[in-house]
What does this fold into?
Amino acid sequence: MQLGLIGLGRMGGNMRERLRAAGHEVVGYDRNQEISDAASVAELVDKLSAPRVVWVMVPAGVTESTIDEVAGLLSEGDVIIDGGNSRFSDDGPRAERLRERGIGYLDVGVSGGVWGRDNGYALMVGGEEADVATCMPIFEALKPAGDFGFVHAGTHGAGHYAKMVHNGIEYGLMHAYAEGYELLLASEYVDNVPGVFKSWREGTVVRSWLLDLLDRALDQDPELAKLRGYADDTGEGRWTVDEGVRLAVPLNVIAASLFARFASRQDDSPAMKAIAALRNQFGGHAVKTD
It folds into this structure.
């Protein structure tokens, strides 16, 4: 199958290589011309034969403008895939705009990170069945071998919604490992914290790929001394908590892990200053000052 792929960063570039290794023809475009197969989006479209499929793999801030540019160059019967971390609520209106031009649209949540080229990518797809069928050879090449790693999750928006929840769960899992790490580090009993995590990688109920990655990080830096305790977020955790509020679903762990990331960015918490002041006011408790 032939595919146009816009955005050849850490994910898109590796996806191109995995697809080519499976025998597909991929025409890639990136603003970095050193890695691009086409000088422009228009040239990329010109190199494709109808009916065309173009996969957009760009940062959220430029997704809409990129899709609009591509749509202006495509024809009835073509399909656009958004594989970025777009908000699910954007997908329905976007699909409707493209449908008016006769262009199909799929939203695809992609998980696999920098390891996907070798291990495969988990794909969560939203859209119409006919468009999914058209693109299935591409999905089969990208997903891991075997029965898992792919789902047609539902209508437009379902793919990005599933990826949003996936990332919310990821927040919670990572934070549970992180809290366990900190408790082990503080304990007077345990003197081989990296060894404990390594021992958990087989035979335990907490084994996972995230645990394997934490073990790898501890092998490289046993005390994580080279890192700052600062964790960013790209939006999906916030959207997940928003949906929990909208649907009255308690998301205690996911919400706490999101707020912990916010706390990680504060050098000196204003909230904790207020608590220290209150303890001093009502109980005369000692405070620490600069």
Remarks:
- The chain has a mean pLDDT of 94.
- The CA atoms of residues 119 and 144 lie 6 Å apart.
